[in-house]
Design goal:
The complex is a heterodimer.
Chain A: H1 2-17, H2 23-49, E1 54-58, E2 67-71, H3 73-96, H4 104-126, H5 130-148, H6 155-186, H7 192-200, H8 203-221, H9 230-236, H10 239-249, H11 251-263, H12 268-291, H13 296-324, H14 327-362, H15 373-376, H16 378-391, H17 398-413, H18 419-451, H19 468-486, H20 488-503, H21 517-546, E3 550-553, H22 571-574, H23 576-582, E4 587-593, E5 604-610, H24 612-630, H25 640-673
Helix pairs in contact in A: 1-2, 1-4, 2-3, 2-4, 3-4, 3-10, 3-14, 3-19, 3-20, 4-5, 5-6, 6-7, 6-8, 6-9, 8-11, 9-10, 9-13, 10-14, 11-13, 12-13, 12-18, 13-14, 13-17, 13-18, 14-16, 14-17, 14-19, 14-20, 16-18, 16-19, 17-19, 19-20
Chain B: H1 2-25, H2 35-44, E1 48-51, H3 56-74, H4 90-111, H5 117-146, H6 151-157, H7 164-183, H8 202-205, H9 211-237, H10 242-266, H11 272-297
The chains are: A mainly alpha, B mainly alpha.
């Protein structure tokens, strides 16, 4: 109770104070407030993860009814994830925003929006009253919109922001429909009504209700085909916002899906099948598009879609486990999903912060212009490399652990599975492996082009390493990633409590032990062994080579001794063979002019990747809609007289229609009497 | 533990045997089978030339590549004797740790800023990515068949079931041989003896490596071959006594090496643009194994 009041007091005070302070203090106040909010909300979160749920019921008003605030282990888990990323985001952002210090008012708004988004995200995890939930959701949507359009003088940024705003409200529309449907039948806004609703009506009702919510949350999370806002919003916003957005704001969609799975009692097997299928498609499609991007941040944004797919695969598996009563499948699926949610929030925010450092020193995100930054920005490049390895799911880092859990979930699903489930499992196994392979292609491309080789473009001033202030939170994230990679048992134990929510309450006996604990400790042994072994070999190598002569020279150029940076392999050429294969599935616009003749003019080869799903699902319907509404443009002719006329017609219609209605009924009565 | 020693032993003569076979079929006397090993030792003694473009990545990558293959070898069992490390789902670790090594060798190739090495890196990334699903479906099918999910569990349990599992073993051998060819960049996917950079895959990635690093990379190739040979051998060892198992192990390594030599002698390299499709089609063979497993388990009815 005290915690909640202190929480509200903090956010209100911060919002009141920030507009009236100097620009430097705005940042400091924001960081303080973020820390306070994080501490306050983490208290009930940690106790919930310890097994002690918090439940406070506020009286509310006659409109909302009682407002229950319940923090169980699932909420607690997400609260901690949100807090960590928001903390690192705040510290990183404080230094990142230094170059914008002239825009005082803009920064003030940005700080307030940042706090609002954090507090609304935390509230979403705790509030269990539909109306208040939607309020918090709306604040979160509007706040993120303000965060995205920080550089609102750029046309693309505003365009991306509006795209985000519209899609965020489509998402709210679906949630609203679901909540109103439940509230209209059950006469209460408490989330408990959702459970009662799903059990008191037919199985189909539960499934339809779930998918109503699922679509809403999937738009937020970025499942294909609801992902189209994501690749625009991420590149448009400042680096720390991209990191926070990709790290946690889209994860609130995952929270919603998990929460609804707990609340709605329905045919989990069918739901699981559908989620699993959508997720595999999401994962493959996301990474396939990520590879062909030339904008580093857009590439990372598509990777978020891919990772949402991986998380979804975990959820889908867990769901099927719930439906079929396979407890180890349930546990491994949900543990994998939740751990990957956490992992992705870590390495994706790290990648975005690293991209932000690159942007600050070069002012471009076009990877074809970058190159050789590894020598100029060694720390940023190291951090990017670690995050890239982790996001590809490679050992010894954290991404491997969650993917390993999901793989083992699939393998445990093999037992006693029927033919349809087996086929789906092999399909998703195939999908997950392909996602991993494509991710490696994508990140070797990104790292190789941006950080290794020679510079492809002359920057003035020469790019230099980012300030220590931005690097400290990044190293913090990296440390946590390494710890998860080396000692996953602890984190799995923390996640155990939320996962148990999914396994309890079923006919089979509740499981006490984690099914894979032996493997997990072996994983940590392997990860540690890998580190030690590689270091030992490297040490021996250095000892041996120290005594040998070492010469430096130009890169081998097949006999050609004057190679220049334009001759090195580019990102486009690196993925050319992939592009050729994937071309039928993707929409890539190409422009090409060959080098011809004895005195050739400049040759040209441009590729513009575009999203086929977006072209089909967003652009085409929009075009048709525009076409249809164009027929009514004569109404909007700019003459005030006409507008007054419309007003008069409207008022007349309002008055006459009821009259006409009564007249009509009288007439019908009259005819009936005849 | 025993598998580690055996694989290390097999790695000493494997590539030599391949080269010897190729020499005999082309009517030459050929070098001794320890010649590749002697080359590696010679390289270990040499100094190095580094490109001015390269950085720290280029220096650590060969080490990590070697370490990753060693980590992968640690989980490979020898019949009933478990590997150095063995746990449920260790084949996932096996594949992923190999990918870590590959990740580093790719970015180290890009680190040179060369106009050739990116080409090899691009191909390596693409080809090995396409080979991966085949391996996972293969192992997944055997996990389904045996109900185990570790290498050791799968290999020991497989032989307690029907004779049909040997037929599946043969198909699996085919898949593994092809994967080994892809992973080691051998004919018909890549010609290690070509002299044109444009047609190389693995060789072009290591153009700039020299001295100790190059030796390490070359030895890793031997290790990788022996590792895949050991995996194939495991399909046939099962629960037989150890002296027979030893015989089977070295027999399989021997046959595997000679097969590679023969394939390399009598086939030409595929067109580079067709490689990806061909490797991807390997997944369908794996699917065949999966359906075979379904038949055995009677899931189709």
């Amino acid at each position: 109770m005290f915690v909640i009041e202190a929480f509200i007091l903090t956010i209100v005070t911060a919002i009141m104070v920030i507009p009236f302070t100097g620009v430097r203090w705005k940042g400091i106040f924001t960081i303080t407030a973020v820390c306070l909010l994080a501490i306050l909300s983490s208290i009930p979160a940690v106790t919930a993860l310890g097994g002690l749920n918090t439940e406070v019921i506020f009286a509310g008003s006659s409109v909302t009814g009682e407002i229950p605030v319940r923090i169980d282990a699932l909420s607690g888990c997400f609260i901690l994830i949100i807090n960590f990323t928001f903390l690192t985001g705040a510290f990183y952002g404080f230094h990142y925003m230094k170059q914008y210090r002239a825009e005082t008012a803009n920064i003030g708004l940005h700080c307030i929006a940042y706090l609002l988004v954090q507090s609304s995200l935390l509230s979403i995890c705790a509030i269990q009253n539909s109306i208040l939930f939607l309020f918090a959701w709306e604040i979160m949507a509007l706040g993120s919109f303000l965060l995205v359009i920080f550089e609102h003088q750029k046309k693309e940024t505003v365009k991306a922001g509006i795209n985000f705003l519209v899609q965020a409200h489509v998402c709210i529309l679906f949630l609203l429909t679901g909540f109103i449907w439940v509230a209209s039948r059950m006469n209460t806004y408490d989330f408990k009504a959702i459970t009662a609703f799903s059990t008191s009506y037919s199985l189909l009702t539960g499934i339809v209700l779930f998918f109503c919510f699922f679509i809403g949350f999937a738009i937020k999370a970025g499942f294909v085909p609801f992902h189209t806002w994501l690749p625009y919003a991420h590149p448009a916003s400042p680096a720390h916002i991209s990191g926070v957005m990709s790290g946690v704001i889209i994860k609130i969609g995952i929270y919603g899906i998990l929460r609804m799975l707990l609340l709605i009692k329905s045919d989990y097997t069918l739901i699981g099948y559908i989620i699993l299928f959508i997720s595999v498609v999401t994962g493959i499609y996301g990474v396939m598009l990520a590879i062909i991007q030339h904008n580093l941040k857009k590439l990372l944004a598509y990777h978020s879609i891919e990772n949402i797919g991986i998380i979804g695969i975990g959820i889908g598996l867990g769901c099927i486990g719930m439906g079929t009563g396979n407890s180890s499948l349930t546990i491994l699926g949900f543990t994998g999903a939740i751990l990957h949610t956490f992992n992705h929030s870590l390495f994706k925010s790290l990648l975005f912060y690293a991209a932000g450092n690159v942007y600050q020193s070069t002012h471009t995100m076009d990877i074809e212009k970058l190159g050789g930054l590894g020598k100029l920005m060694p720390r940023t490049s190291f951090l990017f490399l670690i995050a890239a390895i982790a996001i590809c799911g490679l050992p010894p880092f954290n991404g491997f652990v969650s993917e390993f859990l999901i793989y083992n979930g699939m393998l445990s699903g093999f037992h006693n599975a029927n033919l349809s489930f087996l086929s789906l499992l092999v399909f998703s196994l195939f999908g997950l492996v392909l996602i991993g392979g494509l991710a490696i292609l994508c990140f070797t491309k990104a790292f190789g082009t941006v950080f290794s080789g020679t510079p492809r473009h002359l920057f003035n001033p020469v790019p230099s390493e980012a300030k220590a202030g931005t690097l400290v939170p990044m190293f913090l994230i990296m440390a946590l990633m390494t710890i998860i990679g080396i000692y996953p048992v602890f984190f799995v134990r923390v996640i155990w409590e939320p996962v148990r929510l999914f396994t309890s309450g079923y006919e089979y006996a509740p499981v006490v032990n984690f099914p894979l604990s032996g493997s997990l400790s072996m994983i940590s042994l392997c990860a540690l062994g890998f580190f030690v072994f590689a270091s030992a070999i490297y040490f021996i190598r250095n000892r041996i080579t120290a005594r040998r002569p070492v010469v430096t020279g130009p890169t081998w150029g097949c006999g050609y001794l004057a190679p220049n940076s334009h001759m090195q392999y580019t990102a486009s050429s690196f993925i050319r063979s992939y592009r050729k294969l994937a071309e039928p599935v993707l929409a890539i616009h190409k422009k090409k002019s060959e080098v011809k003749g004895i005195f050739p003019k400049t040759g040209l080869h441009e590729t513009h990747p575009y999203d086929k799903a977006e072209a089909m699902l967003i652009d085409y319907p929009l075009r048709q809609l525009k076409h249809f509404f164009n027929r009514f443009t004569f109404l909007q002719n700019g003459n005030p007289q006409f507008y007054i006329l419309y007003g008069v017609v409207f008022i007349t219609a309002v008055i006459i229609i009821p009259f006409a209605g009564t007249a009509l009924t009288t007439l019908i009565h009259f005819f009936n009497q005849l | 533990m025993i598998s580690l020693i055996l694989i290390l032993l097999a790695s000493l003569f494997f590539t030599g045997l391949v080269i010897w076979t190729k020499s005999i079929t082309s009517g030459r006397k050929g070098p001794g089978i320890f010649q590749p090993l002697k080359d590696v030792l010679r390289l270990f003694k040499k100094g190095a030339v580094y490109s001015k473009t390269t950085g720290i990545i280029f220096q650590v990558a060969p080490t990590i590549y070697f370490a990753s293959v060693m980590m992968a070898i640690f989980v490979v069992p020898f019949g009933q004797a478990r590997g150095f490390i063995s746990f449920e789902g260790d084949f996932v670790f096996f594949a992923y740790v190999l990918a870590t090594g590959k990740f580093f060798s790719i970015i180290s190739a890009l680190d040179t800023g060369s106009s050739f090495e990116g080409m090899g890196a691009s191909r390596e990334a693409l080809f090995s990515m396409f080979a991966e699903p085949a391996f996972f479906i293969l192992m997944g099918s055997f996990a389904l068949l045996t109900g185990h999910s570790s290498f050791q569990g799968i290999f020991t349990a497989m032989h307690f079931t029907t004779k049909f599992s040997y037929a599946l073993g043969a198909l699996a051998t085919f898949v593994l041989v092809i994967i080994a060819m892809v992973e080691n960049s051998r004919m018909p996917f890549d010609d290690p003896k070509t002299h044109l950079e444009l047609t190389m895959v693995h060789e072009v990635m290591i153009l700039d490596n020299s001295g100790f690093d190059l030796g390490l990379i070359l030895y890793t190739t031997n290790l990788k071959f022996a590792m895949y040979g050991a995996l194939i051998a495991n399909f046939f060892i099962g629960a037989i006594p150890w002296y027979l198992a030893l015989l089977v192990f070295f027999g399989v390594q021997f046959v595997f090496a000679i097969t590679i030599g023969l394939i390399e002698s009598f086939t030409a390299r595929f067109r580079m643009s067709h490689n990806a499709q061909y490797i991807f089609a390997l997944s369908s063979v794996s699917l065949l194994i999966f359906f075979g497993v379904l038949l055995v388990l009677g899931k189709f009815i």
